[in-house]
Design brief:
Helix content is about 30%, strand content about 15%. The chain contains ten helices and eight strands.
């Protein structure tokens, strides 16, 4: 009750956390914000930012509910980033609700991708993929790891059809996520991805959509026609006029 009265008084709240460990546990959600980190493979001294090791020591990583990993144009998010210590800290993130990944190199995680992301599958309800690397089936397989996924965002797909890896048509998603919230697609023109996603997931039921420069838009709208409540088409998109 005391913590609730001091929610917006950060200085007093920090002072109270010095009283005992149990007070600190109660106050942590109000003192720590969503964690954002930038990964740079070209930096040989890369390490997780201070909040991760610090909170891991206290056993508080499950309180990180939003986690964003953002790479650079010249680097990918791949298993090369994980030594034993980093993997142990990453696996401690067991209560992430929103996961944002930039330049995720899915082929390099295969076939052991479940080992790296399976611990997030029970809590993640929102997934953002920015310029993911991989074939259509690999991207869909990754999305299918998250069994309670409601919201999905796919942005900026720069893959060329002649450069895409050959699809393994036997690669089936682990789960059929609900996909009943927001769908955001911007400049994502991977040919056939939406058709394969609809075929493999079967009953996608998005209620809201924001679409800009999307390959297969009519197919997507038809698949969700019964559940759609709002569709936003970017005015810069000639297909949205």
């Amino acid at each position: 009750m005391i913590i609730s009265y001091l929610t917006y008084d950060t200085r007093s709240l920090r002072t109270c956390t010095l009283t005992c460990y149990s007070w600190y546990i109660a106050a942590v959600p109000h003192l720590h914000h969503s964690l954002t980190t930038t990964i740079d493979l070209w930096n040989p001294k890369f390490c997780w930012p201070n909040p991760i090791p610090y909170m891991y020591t206290l056993g508080l990583l499950p309180l990180v509910k939003k986690f964003r990993v953002c790479g650079q144009n010249y680097s990918n998010f791949s298993p090369k980033l994980f030594n034993y210590c980093v993997l142990r800290q990453f696996l401690a993130l067991t209560n992430v609700r929103k996961l944002e990944l930039g330049y995720l190199d899915i082929p390099n995680f295969m076939p052991r991708i479940q080992r790296y992301f399976g611990h997030l599958s029970h809590t993640a309800q929102s997934l953002v993929l920015r310029e993911p690397r991989g074939s259509r089936r690999q991207i869909i397989h990754f999305i299918g790891l998250f069994q309670h996924l409601q919201d999905l965002e796919l942005t900026y797909d720069k893959a060329k059809s002649e450069e895409e890896p050959v699809d393994d048509l036997t690669l089936i998603p682990s789960f059929v996520p609900p996909l009943r919230g927001w769908l955001t697609i911007r400049c994502f023109t991977r040919v056939g991805l939406l058709k394969d996603m609809i075929d493999l997931f079967g009953g996608i039921q998005f209620r809201y959509m924001y679409l800009f420069n999307v390959e297969g838009m009519p197919l997507l709208l038809d698949a969700c026609a019964k559940t759609l409540e709002m569709v936003v088409l970017d005015p810069a998109d000639p297909r949205g006029e």
